[in-house]
Design goal:
The chain is of the alpha+beta class. The chain has three helices and four strands. α1 packs antiparallel against α2.
Length: 93
């Protein structure tokens, strides 16, 4: 089991963002060895977060790989551009 460290950058208080925060914290405690594996699980779990207004969490948030042991979670704009970085997640041994 690997440990992951969360560095929080910016988080708002909307219901979807709270659900994403819970998801990130849960994945940090239960997820595997590489950032690719973490991102794959993040994407699949985003689909389970309910829509708010007409926006789905699947389209509103994205995890991007920095390297094999680090990734970033972003809030996305409606047009698909990056809005702001929410978290940096790094594996620690």
């Amino acid at each position: 089991m690997y440990n992951w460290k969360i560095e929080q950058h910016k988080v708002c208080s909307g219901q979807q963002e709270l659900n994403v925060r819970i998801l990130v914290k849960d994945l940090v405690e239960t997820t595997g060895s590489t950032s690719e594996e973490w991102i794959s699980l993040f994407k699949s779990h985003l689909k389970k977060i309910p829509k708010t207004n007409s926006f789905s969490a699947e389209n509103g948030y994205k995890a991007t790989q920095r390297n094999l042991t680090s990734l970033e979670v972003w809030k996305m704009k409606a047009n698909g551009d990056f809005n702001y970085k929410m978290y940096t997640v790094t594996r620690i041994n």
